[in-house]
Amino acid sequence: MKLITAIIQEDRLDQVREALIEAEITRITVSRVSGHGQQMDEDLYRGKKVIPNLIPKARLDIAVNDSFVDITVRAIMISAKSPNGGKVGDGKIFITPLEECIRIRTGERGGGAI
Fold it and tell me: Partner of 97 at 20 to 30 A CA spacing, among 3, 46, 50, 90?
């Protein structure tokens, strides 16, 4: 089992959700977050360095069985990339091992609980 965390542009969320549904990945958690990566530039304003504000993003957390990792990552990558080859700030995908998953209602554990 893996936990896939994707940080994407907020305006790409609907396209990513649709791509995931087409790939039969329907169980996701979405959070509104803010941050910055490479697109953070220091600006000079009246001779002083000004660091821009944090940029709003969407965070997707998706728990999947190992056989769905590549399918999920491919759907996110294709749908989250900006047109014309992408741009700085399109986002990141993190894949981490998921030690255990427990369905609260039934107590079921492991891949079946996902």
Answer: 90
